[in-house]
Amino acid sequence: MTIAAREYDFEAARRRLEAKPKSAGPKLRSLEEAAALVKDGDHVALGGCLYSRTPLALVWALLRRRPQRLTFSRNLMCYEGEWGMVAGAVDKLVTSWMGIGLPWGLSRIQREFVESGRVEFEEWSHLGLGLRYRAAAMGVPFLPSLTMLGSGLMDVGGSKTVACPYTGQTLHAVPALFPDVALIHVQKADRLGNCQILPARVLRRLRRRARALHDVRGPDPGARHRRGGRLPGALRLRPGGPRRLPGPLRRGAADRRGRPRADAHHVSVTANELLAVMGARELRDNTTVFTGVGAPMMASVLAQRTHAPRLTMMVEGGVIGPMWKPGELPISTNEMRAAYRAQMLPGITDAFLLAQRGFFDVGFIGGAQIDRHGNLNTSAIGGYARPKVRLPGSGGANDIISLCREVLILTVHEKRRFTERVDFVTSPGYLDGGDSRRRHGLLFGGVSQGSCAC
Asked: In a 10 Å sphere around its CB, with 0-12 CB exposed, 13-18 middle and 19+ buried, how is residue 339 labelled?
């Protein structure tokens, strides 16, 4: 699989843009008219992230036209990629991770179409794909980066390296990605095409106002102005999974704090809870941690609420410094609860650029396969092109292991996870051992240790 030259040809992209009409007049169109602008064979970039701000109405309008040979690209792919494959419209997916969320497991549709060879799956890291879009926005053919070096992801699309003209160090020349069409969803827009994405605090205020309305379906016109009513069920925001921390991690009542339970010797814990405790012990106060969903998130919260109150957490959806509510951990790095009382909400690309700069001390990752050199596989079991099992992808794991000062692996101790050599190096540990990590251009970080629960 190689990157299409059209995606990074910055000269041709500029000529296309120069020839395009640039009217300052109204741009309002119907969904059907907008969808008709997409031609067979186009590369369609989708805005939003996972299930946040997905342009659902546009995607549905597009698929109703029965297009063919499309390429969909997005940092985190979700329902839209599944629908495109099932509709027969998509021949290729370009993303860093595909799924709905950890509680729901692997995408069966992705597995069916990719494992059978009907759809190509071009995988990048979060930062890698974000820099592809950014290079295109800047009008240049590539951007240099320190991510993905030494991993199997470099070969997936035929990425190339360059020597820094100033230091001689090896850099990843991340190729630009000029899509033909972009579909985005925003909360506000005017007729001239100016758009606004509202901050979370405004959306929360709007939801509070909406909850104050009476039943909007009521026959009484004045009912919608009354307070104290409820939204129809279809419009209510429902959390998609467990809302409470496991029992051993909940904060107890004030009068019981510090006193052991009467049945302490008989309390059982799950493997994930044990991993969280072990991971929390590795975190220190006044440091920053790149955390993920599940055990890493529980470990970070546990450390912050016990011995490391000034620990700063970062989640890959672009959230820095959240203070999550006890018992209400997010089930995804991209849902509203992940941003509760956050200090900063950058985009995914900007968040990982902070890691490349050196702002993050510790990163948590896991994998389906791990070898003795700390290399991890979250891409494919049994080879990349025609895998026996297609996994979700790198997500931010490759960037974390490439850029963070110290990396901790948290995983359940299962024999099938530990192999002599991983089937595919999604996230490079120490590659072949010795100085092979540095020889591939990975100057920083590396796996510090792994924590397992039997």
From this structure: buried
Asked if 43 and 17 count as a contact pair (C-beta separation under 8 A), the reply is: no
Query: Starting from the edge strand earliest in sequence, which strands make up the sheet with 406-412, in order?
Result: 319-320, 312-315, 288-291, 362-365, 406-412, 447-453
- HSE of 383 in the Cβ direction (CA atoms, 13 Å)? 7
CB 197 within 8 A of CB 187: yes
Catalogue all structural domains in the chain, each as residue range(s) with its CATH number. Answer: 5-189 (3.40.1080.10), 200-235 (no CATH), 269-453 (3.40.1080.10)
Given a contact cutoff of 8 angstroms between Cβ atoms, the answer to whether 125 and 379 are in contact is: no
Tell me how far CA of residue 98 lies from CA of 80, 122, 379, 390, in angstroms.
10, 11, 10, 10
For 121, what's the count of Cα atoms within 13 Å in the CB-facing half-sphere?
32
Within 10 angstroms of residue 209's Cβ, the number of other Cβ atoms is 10
What's 182's DSSP letter? E
Report CA 54 to chain centroid distance, whole Å. Answer: 14
Residues forming a β-bridge with 377: 369
3-state SS string for 94-122: EEEEECCCHHHCCCHHHHHHHHCCCCEEE
In the chain, how many H helices and how many E strands? Answer: 14, 20
Contact 408, 364 (CB under 8 A): yes
Cα 408 to Cα 45, 156, 412, 417: the distances in Å are: 33, 26, 13, 16
Look up the pTM and report it.
0.84
CA 87/CA 63 separation, integer angstroms:
7
| Residue 143, phi-psi category: left (phi > 0), alpha (psi -120 to 50), beta (remainder) | beta
| Residues annotated catalytic, as ranges | 316
pLDDT tens sequence for the chain (454 residues)? 678 888 999 999 999 999 988 888 898 999 999 999 999 999 999 998 877 788 999 999 999 999 999 999 999 898 899 999 999 999 999 999 998 766 677 889 999 999 999 999 999 999 999 999 999 999 999 999 999 999 999 999 899 999 999 999 999 999 999 999 999 998 889 999 899 887 666 666 665 555 555 444 444 444 444 444 444 444 343 444 434 444 544 444 444 444 555 655 666 788 888 888 999 999 999 999 999 878 888 899 999 999 999 999 999 888 999 998 877 788 777 777 888 888 988 888 999 999 999 999 999 988 899 999 999 999 999 989 889 999 999 999 999 999 999 999 988 888 889 999 999 999 999 999 999 999 999 998 777 655 555 4
